[in-house]
Every structure is written in structure tokens, then in C-alpha cells.
Known about the structure:
Elements lengths: L1 E4 L3 E4 L5 E4 L6 E4 L2 H5 L2 E4 L2 E3 L2 E3 L28 E4 L2 E8 L9 E11 L4 E6 L2 E3 L8 E11 L2 E11 L4 E9 L5 E18 L6 E15 L2 E11 L2 E2 L8 H9 L7 E2 L2 E9 L2 E11 L3 E10 L2 E11 H10 L7 E3 L2 E10 L4 E3 L2 H24 L7 H13 L5
Parallel strand pairs: 5-8, 6-9, 7-9
Antiparallel strand pairs: 1-4, 2-3, 9-10, 10-11, 10-12, 11-13, 12-13, 13-14, 14-15, 15-16, 16-17, 17-18, 18-21, 19-20, 21-22, 22-23, 23-24, 24-26, 25-26, 26-27
Helix pairs in contact: 2-4, 4-5
Amino acid sequence: MVLLFRVHGWFSEPNGCTRTLPLGFREIRTEISPRLLLDRILRFPEITIGKLSIQGGRNPIPARDTPAPSPSPAGSKSEIFRDVQVGKVEIRELQVIPSATTGGWGVSGITALVEPRKQMTTFSLAQGEIQTPLPWLGRVDLVEARGRYAGPTVFLTSLAVKAKSGGTLEMSGEFVPGSAPHPKGKITWNRWAVPGGKIGVGLFEIPASMSGDFILQDWQDGGPVGNGRVQLVDARLEPGRGSETILGILGLLTGEPRLRGCPLTTANATWNLGPGFYDVTQIIAEAPGLLRAVGQIQIRGNSLNGRVELGLEGDLGRKVNALTGGECFARLENGYSVQSIQLSGTLDAPKNDLEPKLKGALARTAIRTGAQILEKATGAQGSGDAAGQAVNVLKSLFGTPPK
Length: 403
């Protein structure tokens, strides 16, 4: 005897809310022996589901009122089966549509194998795609996942995924579902792409991939809570577009070619994450003998705030210090000329208090250079002619260029 089912339904939670569950079962097949029916034991050695699609959400239609069942006499149809046993359930295609119920997580194209037992249910997943609510994770493909369920906790023994860029990520932990879910676990990634390809918050740009880990401690107000560390791999220091970043302006002021692109031997950070906030507690980036940056950044929503101590190689720092009239990079520490930078603005439009000073020095340098070119071209030496007067005006405004 072969059975074929199709199911669509809903369920009501203890708090009265109703969630729709369009299960969309396709091709559920199993064999039942007539002898087992006579023994009142229903056994399913194996159940195969062609496709299972699940979407949680609010149902505007209230749950139907079901009349209380009347007492059943002994030997009624409720006693037809005294036991139901399932060996394993195979789902050839599993889909969970991301929603508020799933915390923004979802899967598609997953194959699953579930083996229920009295004390514990084990499961394994393979292939397919995972949709995540975490932008830094991006789009990932599932390699394999294994775990078990021992009510009410789901234990994730191992999970391995791979990014489109080739990076890998592994995860393990546990999850207690409910109106206030409590997940715990650890995520480790290797050579994962930096979101957007580059980082730098307006100071410079660093194209790189990243390795690190994140300890998930809880889930509060719809978001993960935890801390982690990250190390940039194959990181390279770049000035960004034109002179729009601090590094770009410093490259123009000093004429140092290494500020237009060089590898970073050290680039790492530690960070804390919670609903609505992201704190980078320690940043260290260094290209020895050229530049060193140490600092902290706080992000609230899209707002940015932080402080970075930026050090330039001694001679380069002294050159910038002279061009700014002693306003910047006046402090010497461990062979670097150091300047404190205050960060503000937003992630989309970061600001800092050093950029206006450097742009002013860049403008003064350009005008001084223009005065020198004008003086040489006209042969004017402060005479009474128009060219000589123009040279004198420029010099009086900005003084003699530093040596």
C-alpha cells in the first residue's frame, strides 16, 4: 500500500497569535504493510518528500474555534493505532523563506535527512543556499550541516559554508526556539571577502579578504549579541579615489609614492556587536617605516564616531607639519610623527577633523607654487609692474614655503 499526501495549514501559538505555515509538501510517499495495520502499529521505515517550503508570518484570519472533543468510549477509533514509528525522513528540496519569524534567515535548494528517535532526533543538510540577515556574511552556499534536536534545544554540531568569492565559514552552537530565542555558538571564517571589497572610513582604503571568528552570546531585540576579532589577509593600503581620503591628500603633500599603494604587514581589529550598535574596540594597521594607525570606532545605526592615532614616518611627518604651520603631526612616538584624528558623520559619508587642515595646507602649497611659477615666467622681483605686485600679494598671504 502506497500513501500520497498534500498538506496546507496553520497553527495557533499559546499567546493567541496565529502563524501561517504553507508547507507545500510534494510527493510524500511511504509503504504500509496490511499486517502492521492489524497489529495497530504504524511504521514508516522511510518517508520521502519531494519539496517542502515553509514560510512563517502573521495570519489576519483568527484561528478557528474547535469544539471540545467528547469523551471517547473504550475501543473507539482513537485507539486504532497504539504506536507510530518513523525510521527516517528524506527531503529532496527544502526551502525556508526569510521572515521576522526566522530572524531574517532562510534557505533554498537544501537536501535534508531526519532520523527521529524517542530521546533525540538527528539531522543532516547538504548543498543549497543560505540567506542571512548579516550584511558582512553576504550570500553563501551550504556545504554540509549536522546536528540534533533534544527538546527544546537544537544543537548544531557542525556547519560548513562557502562564499561565492571562495572564502569558507564554519559554525557550531545551540538554539532554544520560542518568543525569546536564545542562540549560542561560534563562527569562524577564512579569507572571507570584506563587505564592499574595501574598508577605511574616509582615512584610506584597504582592499583585502578577512579571517577571524565571532562568539554569539545571545539574540536580543531581533539582533545578534557577541564579540569577535578579525585579521585582514593580503591587505594593501591605497589612497582611495583622487585626494578624497586622508591618505590621498598626504600622498599629494609629501610626494611619497608608497602612500599611493603598499602592503600592510599588520591589519587586525577586535569588535563587539549588538542590536543597533557595532563597536570596533581596537584597530591596528601598520606598514613598517611608513605608516601606523591605532584606534577605536563606534557605530550606532548608520552614525559613526571614533578616534584614530595616525603616525607617519618621521621625515614625512615633519614635512607635513611644516606645510601646515606646525598644526599637524607635531608629536613624535617610536619613530613616527603622530596626529590624533576624530571621526564623525555616517558610514555612507564619514568625516574627520584632519582633512580640512590638510586641504588648507594643500591649497597654500599650490598657491605658493603658482607664485613661484609666475615669478620665474615674468622675471618679476617685486617691482612696480602688475606681475610683480601679484607675486608680492601671494607671498604676503602664505609666506615663504618651508624648506
